[in-house]
Amino acid sequence: MFIKHGMYKYPEYPIWQQMNARCRNPRHPKYHRYGGRGITVCAEWRTNFATFLRDVGRRPIQGLTIDRIDNDGNYEPGNVRWSTPKEQQANGSCARKIVFNGEYIPRKEACRRAGILFGTFQSRLRYGWTIEEALSNPVGTSWQLRNIRTNASHEQTADTILRILRKGDAK
């Protein structure tokens, strides 16, 4: 039974309705990504928009939508936030994630934090760099470091890398 609240004109109301529909209506076009995967709406929110709004809060700015922090978790207090489409895409189930500084985050976010362009990161991986090497080496040393690693012993590699980084003559 749905509780009447007189809040149907709030901009958050259709977001709440769609959240419920994705999780509960097998005929919803996105049901397979939500209810079909076992994602549910907590009992307190399922039939009570006012409780949902009290727990989540008003949408701070237009354009934000509801997002689950743990993409495999349910719509429930502590696991939802208002997010931009870009944030949601990075949090999606298809976003490839890696461990960076002990944190499991999307690859693009790791690149942003490391100050490396995502294209540079991808190229380095294609050339056989490890994820750690690709994110920790300064930009501009790619070709020199690759050539050093493939053509020298470990001692020579370490000495040459240190020389390049000290001089700053990497191009």
Walk me through this protein's architecture.
With 171 residues, the chain is mainly α. It contains nine helices and four strands. The chain has helices at 12-24, 43-46, 49-56, 85-91, 107-114, 118-126, 131-136, 142-151, 154-167, and strands at 65-68, 80-83, 97-100, 103-106. Strand 3 and strand 4 form a beta hairpin. The longest helix is centred in the last third of the chain and has 14 residues, at 154-167.
Total beta strands: 4
Strand order of the largest sheet: 1-2
> Which spans of ≥5 residues are poorly predicted at pLDDT below 50?
none
- Write the H/E string, N to C: HHHEEHEEHHHHH
User: Helix/strand/pairing class, anyone?
Assistant: mainly alpha
* Mean pLDDT figure: 82
Radius of gyration: 23 Å
For the terminal residues, how far apart are their CA atoms? Answer: 68 Å
Describe the main β-sheet briefly.
Answer: 2 strands, antiparallel
Range of helix content = 40-55%
Number of helices: 9
What portion of residues belong to β-strands?
Answer: 5-15%
Coarse morphology: elongated
Quick summary:
It is elongated and about 70 Å long. The model has no long low-confidence stretch (mean pLDDT 82).
